[in-house]
Design goal:
- By secondary structure, this protein is α/β, with parallel strands linked by helices.
- About 45% of the residues lie in helices and about 15% in strands.
- The chain contains 16 helices and 15 strands.
- It has helices spanning about 35-55, 70-80, 85-100, 115-130, 160-165, 205-215, 230-245, 275-280, 285-290, 305-330, 340-345, 350-360, 365-380, 390-400, 420-430, 435-450; strands spanning about 1-5, 10-15, 20-25, 60-65, 135, 140, 180-185, 200, 220-225, 250-255, 260, 265, 300, 450-455, 460-465.
- Strand 1 (about 1-5) and strand 2 form a beta hairpin.
- The radius of gyration is 26 Å and the shape is globular.
- The two termini are about 40 Å apart.
- The model has no long low-confidence stretch (mean pLDDT about 95).
- It binds adenosine monophosphate and zinc ion.
- Zinc ion binds next to loops.
- It comes from Candidatus Sarcina troglodytae.
- Its EC number is 6.1.1.16.
- This is Cysteine--tRNA ligase.
- Keywords: Ligase.
- It is an enzyme of class 6 (ligase).
């Protein structure tokens, strides 16, 4: 497999530290609010990459942190008249609800920064002891000039970075590029006891520390949105490698932004759509399809039309699934013929194409094209005369290729949303009660929503009028 490494600016052959295993750390959300679909893209992309490694037989240790202490958390706690801890608890719960609904697999570990304060203090202490960090009035700064490789991820030297970056001039820092790894307590802020007085960790140090404590000094993959490459990841590398003297991460992966009118979707620009709001209107398959229809290193200019077109595309694939599932109810032959065997075998060319594309730095866009080519072929060649084994083989293949993308796992048979299911149940009750008028009314209501019911000896069957 080839992955694009931001560190070397090249696609490289992926070589894990331990054969068959992947240690992966992804920078997670700051939990002061609901996440938006821009954040969602980053989570979906790395969930897909993790799933694909698993599909290829790797065992993945996947860590994604929650930043639960920083300025935004403190501000939100003050606004809501509550504690930083409660803000964190609340939005971590909301994160799981939305992430689960987006079919994002749960991480192996989701560490919270505030649960690692002791380890963070040890980390900072280690850097001070080694002369890579210094204290000023209860703040501790990392000395970027001391770390010879500073700038290697961004591919710039320290002078270029200095002139390009908007850096706050702080008289107390030895160098403008130095950054805080421990911050002295300000009035009203939550704080922990440390050798430098009461204070709290800086943002960059938490990821270095949690990655080290959970995954070890060197990991395979470190990832996040492209805005994190500088300074967040650059600073993580500096801190971690200064402390351990070892390579921090072998591969650095960055996913591109979701934009709106060519501007980054962000909470501060107020141009965002929360994942929660998107999920109210669109299925997870549709949102994932949209996010994966572009290569992860390509920016995506978001619009509602794009979601609508993703919806139409997903429906096309589900139509095939629907047809195959219905054929299974009606098939006349069970056993596969030799000719069918050959045909099923021939469909492997789409799987090979899919794997070739995904192996090439996770080209989900082309992998999706391979799925469309597969369903086109199946639509033409599988019908009521096909055997049960062939139909099942086709369905399994579609689902197999959908799984790493976190899509196409649903059955159209249970695809009624809850409200419609409730109406179907109510109608059954009405029939039991011999309330024919009500039963007919529910049937007509469903029909007006495009759902047709059929009473069969096996029970109620339903389908959409246009399918
Ligand atoms: P945050 O909660 O702001 O710390 O962001 C969580 C993750 O979402 C980080 O990996 C960010 O890089 C990523 N992210 C933030 N905004 C966007 C965006 N508009 N498009 C894609 N990823 C984003
Ligand atoms: Zn991070």
């Amino acid at each position: 497999m080839k992955v694009y490494n931001t560190l070397t600016k090249k696609k490289e052959e992926f070589k894990p530290l331990v054969a068959g295993k992947v240690k992966m750390y992804v920078c997670g959300p700051t939990v002061y609010n609901f996440f938006h679909i821009g954040n969602g893209r980053t989570f979906i992309v790395f969930d897909t990459i993790r799933r694909y490694f698993e599909y290829r037989g790797y065992e993945v240790e996947f860590v994604q942190n929650f930043t639960d202490i920083d300025d935004k958390m403190i501000k939100r706690a003050n606004e809501e008249n509550t504690t930083v801890k409660e803000v964190g608890d609340k939005y971590i719960k909301e994160y799981y609800e939305d992430a689960d609904n987006l079919n994002i697999e749960r991480a192996t570990v989701n560490p919270r920064a505030t649960e690692y304060i002791t380890q963070i203090i040890d980390f900072v202490k280690g850097l001070v002891d080694k002369g890579f960090a210094y204290e000023v009035d209860g703040d501790v700064y990392f000395s970027t000039k001391k770390f010879g490789d500073y700038g290697k991820l961004s591919g710039q030297n320290i002078e270029d970075l200095q002139s390009g970056a908007r850096i706050s001039i702080d008289e107390r820092k030895k160098d403008p590029m130095d950054f805080a790894i421990w911050k002295a307590q300000k009035p009203g802020e939550p704080a922990w006891k440390s050798p430098w007085g009461m204070g709290r960790p800086g943002w960059h140090i938490e990821c270095s520390c949690m990655a080290k404590n959970i995954l070890g000094d060197t990991i395979d993959i470190h990832a996040g949105g492209s805005d994190l490459a500088f300074p967040h990841h650059e600073n993580e590398i500096a801190q971690s490698e200064a402390l351990t003297g070892k390579t921090f991460a072998n591969y650095w992966l960055h996913s591109a932004f979701v934009n709106v009118n060519n501007q980054k979707m962000s909470k501060s620009l107020n141009n965002f759509l929360t994942a929660r709001a998107a999920l109210e209107k669109f299925d997870a398959d549709v949102i994932r399809f949209l996010m994966l229809s572009a290569h992860y290193r390509q920016q995506l200019n978001f619009s509602e039309e794009l979601l609508l077109s993703a919806k139409a595309s997903v429906e096309r694939i589900y139509n095939t699934i629907y047809n195959l599932e219905n054929l299974l109810d009606e098939v006349r032959t069970t056993h596969i013929t030799d000719e069918e065997k050959k045909y099923l075998q021939s469909l492997n060319k789409y799987k090979e194409k899919y794997i070739e594309k995904m192996d090439d730095d996770f080209n989900t866009a082309d992998a999706i094209t391979a799925i469309f080519d597969l369903i086109k072929d199946v639509n033409i060649n599988v019908n009521i005369d096909s055997s049960k084994e062939l139909i099942t083989g086709c369905l399994n293949l579609i689902r197999e290729l959908g799984k790493p993308l976190g899509m196409l796992q649903k059955s159209t048979k249970v695809n009624l949303d809850d409200e419609i299911q409730k109406l179907v149940n109510e109608r059954q009750q009405a029939r039991k009660d011999k309330n024919w008028a009500l039963a007919d009314k529910i049937r007509d209501d469903l029909k007006s929503r495009g759902i047709v019911l059929e009473d069969t000896p096996q029970g109620i069957r339903w389908h959409k009028i246009d399918e």
